[in-house]
Amino acid sequence: MDLGDLMQRNSIVLINLSMATLGETECQISGSLLLIMFHTAAMRANASGRRARQPFTLIVDEAHTFISPVIAQMCRESRKFGLGLVLFTQAIESLRHPVAGDLSTAVLASTATKIFMRLSGREARHQLGEHISPEFTAADLVRLPNFHGVMSMAAAGIPPFMFKTDPPEPAAHADAVAFMRELSGRRYGTPVIEADRLVVLCARRKSASDSSARHGLR
User: Fold this and answer.
1) Could you give the CA distance from residue 36 to residue 176 in angstroms, rounded to a whole number?
2) What is the Cα 42 distance to its own chain's centre?
3) 165 φ/ψ angles, rounded to the nearest 5 degrees
4) Sequence-separated (6 or more) residues with CB below 8 Å from residue 54
5) pLDDT at residue 218 in the model
6) Residues 30-43: pLDDT tens digits?
7) Domain residue ranges in the chain
8) CA separation for the pair 141, 189 (Å, rounded)
9) 51/45 Cα distance (integer angstroms)
């Protein structure tokens, strides 16, 4: 998978790193490697010239799972390479890592737009007051009603403001979801028959290589 090419073509790339499927360690390692690959691809595109660079947004769900110095570096540098970074995490304190250190300060200082939903008292007091004051206090974040949040847009020069989101709709778009999956599979996927053929081919090559190695040892 050529991430640089996909980014330049403005493709939608979905990568499922389910901890239940991969395991905790494997998930963390894979996610950290992918972050490095995206960052490297963005730097290479930037080196080829600004005209050739295609802006790309990287969305990282459960970002605390992949905490490493890479995320802090990406927060500081990714914008100038045309790579936008959106991080989702359940708790700001989860951005603390025994090896990488406390990355919450780096993340908060490097992100121009912040969205805060209802938080616990401890979370609300953790370096958040300065980003929403004087319009709001940490206590306001604790008492936010359902489906409400506070947004801070420092780069736009707009004072922090409260907003309301729409409640989740019933599963009325199941047909649309199935259609999008089918369309994405047709455009970017590999037919099952072809995938099976490639798997068998790779297995045969590996078997032949292992056999040659055993004979070579003899």
Assistant:
1) 33
2) 15
3) -100, 160
4) 7, 8, 9, 10, 45, 82
5) 46
6) 888 888 888 888 88
7) 1-111, 120-168, 173-218
8) 43
9) 10
pLDDT of residue 217: 47
Residue 54 three-state SS: coil
Q: Is the pLDDT of residue 100 over 90?
A: no
Name the average pLDDT for the chain. Answer: 80
Q: Mind listing the pLDDT tens digit for each residue in 146-195?
A: 999 999 887 778 889 999 998 877 666 667 778 888 888 888 887 888 88
Q: At 53, list the tokens.
A: 């660079």
Reported CATH class of domain 1-111: alpha beta
Over 70: is that where the pLDDT of 211 sits? no
Give the alpha-carbon dihedral of 175, 178, 180, 181, to 10 degrees. Answer: 180
pLDDT score at 43: 84
Distances (CA, A) of 88 to 48, 85, 115, 203: 31, 10, 10, 38
Backbone conformation region of residue 101, classed left if phi is above 0, alpha if psi is from -120 to 50, else beta:
left
Pairing status of strand 56-60 against strand 83-87? parallel
Nearest to 115 by CA among 95, 94, 136: 136
Per the DSSP assignment, residues forming a β-bridge with 58 are 85
